[in-house]
Hints:
Blueprint: H1 2-19, H2 21-42, H3 46-69, H4 71-79, H5 81-87, H6 92-121, H7 126-154, H8 161-168, H9 173-187, H10 193-222
Membrane topology: Multi-pass membrane protein
Main location: membrane
Family: Belongs to the CcmB/CycW/HelB family.
Amino acid sequence: MVGSALIAxxxxxxxxxxxxxxxxxxxxxxxxxxxxxxxxxxxxSPDTLQRIGGxxxxxxxxxxxxxxxxxxxxxxxxxxxxxxxILSPTPLYLIVVVKILAHWLMHIVPLFLISPLLAxxxxxxxxxxxxxxxxxxxxxPLISFVGAIGVALTVGLQKGGxxxxxxxxxxxxxxxxxxxxxxxxxxMLLPYHQQLATIASLLLISVxxxxxxxxxxxxxxxx
Length: 223
C-alpha cells in the first residue's frame, strides 16, 4: 500500500510539472542563456572558453536548479495536500524522497540532453565532457536533496525564493569547487577519482539525512 501511494505521488508530480510547462522551461532557458552569454562577456577565444567552460556550466546548473526548487513543496502547501501527507499513514520522509526524485528528474534530464551542445559551444574536450557528465550526475541530486531542506524551511514564507538562494548558494560552494576541480584535472589528463569520491560521499550523506530533516521542517512549517 505504501508503494502504490508513493508511485501515485510520483506520477502526480510528473503530470503537474508537464501541465505547468512554462514554469518547467524557465530553469532550462535560464541555464542556456547564462552559458550563451558568458562567451560574449569574456570573449570567443577557444582556450579561454575551454578553461572556464566547466565552471560556467556548473554555476548555471546550480542557479537554474535553485530557480525551480521553490516549487517543490509550494503547491502542496498552498492547496492543503501537504497537511494530508503529514496525516497519511505513509511515512513523510518517503514522500519527501519521491518528491525530490521527481523534481530532480524533471529539471536535470533536460540539462543532460542539452549539455553536449553547450559543451561543444564552450570547446570542451571529450575528457572534460565525461568529467562534466559524471560530476553533474553525482552533484545535481546532492543539490536537490540539500536544497529541499531550505525549501521546507521557507515553504510558508511569501516570496521565499530570494531567502532560499541566500541560504543555499554558500552551502553549494564546496560542491562547485570539487566539480570544477575534477573537470580541470580531466583537461590536463590527470585522474579525478578523489573529487568524484568526495562528491559521491556528500551525496550519500545527504540521501541518508536530508529526507528526515525535510520531513521535520515541513511539520514545523505546517504548524
